[in-house]
Amino acid sequence: MEMTIRPRRLRTTAKLRKMVRETRMDKSSLVYPIFVREGENIKEEIPTMPGQYRWSLDRLPEILYETADAGVGSVMLFGIPDHKDEAGSQAYACDGIIQRAMEKAKKEVPGLFYIGDVCMCEYTSHGHCGILKGEYVDNDLTLEKLAQIAVSQVQAGADMVAPSDMMDGHIQAIREALDKNGFVTTPIMSYAVKYASAFYGPFRDAAGSAPAFGDRKSYQMDYHNRREGMKEALLDIEEGADLIMVKPAMSYLDMVREIKDATDVPMAAYSVSGEYAMVKAGAKLGYVDEASILCEMAACAYRAGVDVYMTYFAKELAYFMDEGRIG
Ligand code: PBG
Question: Is the pTM of this model over 0.90?
Answer without folding.
Answer: yes
